[in-house]
Amino acid sequence: MDHKNNKLQYLLLAFSIIGLAAMLYLILSFSANVISPNSCTITGSPLNCGAVVTSQYSKIGGVDLYYYGLAFFIVTAVLSYLYIFVRKRRVLLLKLLMLVSGLAAILVAYLVYTELFVLHHICILCTAGHISILVILFVAIIEYRRIKSAH
Fold it and tell me: Which of 39, 66, 105, 134 would you call most buried, defined as having the most Cβ atoms within 10 angstroms of its Cβ?
């Protein structure tokens, strides 16, 4: 199947960019102080990025999780681009996408649990990243199965 006829694979790149944008917004809000940290908070509601992003659960090894998210989405964007446009070693690229997004999905499960049941706040930008990770994982699995069945 020609890549021009398979629009599903473009979701890999699109959701990498969406996730990248969400992580950049968090960096600009909470590290660079370019955007107000309150810009993604709705007063009186559970939607409060600040409560989530500044919590004790928002770092691994002293590094804010959105930096890991930034690195993740850069990697998935590069892998997705290579998968769509370079078209070499496609099975390997999909395996790498499934591996990194599968590992990230495990972290997503923990983070969503923490947001909902420990912090009782939701970061909408984090949620955009979480959804992006899951979409990348599921599309990579679908693409992998499609390619394997074509051979």
Answer: 66
pLDDT digits (tens, 9 = 90+) for 66-79: 999 999 999 999 99
Domain ranges of the chain: 7-36+44-150
**pLDDT value at 125 more than 90:** yes
* Average pLDDT taken over every residue of the chain: 93
Radius of gyration, CA atoms only, the chain = 17
Superfamily of domain 7-36+44-150 in CATH is: VKOR domain (1.20.1440.130)
Biggest CA-to-CA distance, the chain: 55
Angle at 101 between CA 93 and CA 19, to 5 degrees: 105
> Chain-centre distance of CA 27, in angstroms?
14
Integer Cα distance of 113 and 68 in angstroms: 19
In the numeric block, which tokens belong to residue 48?
């409060």
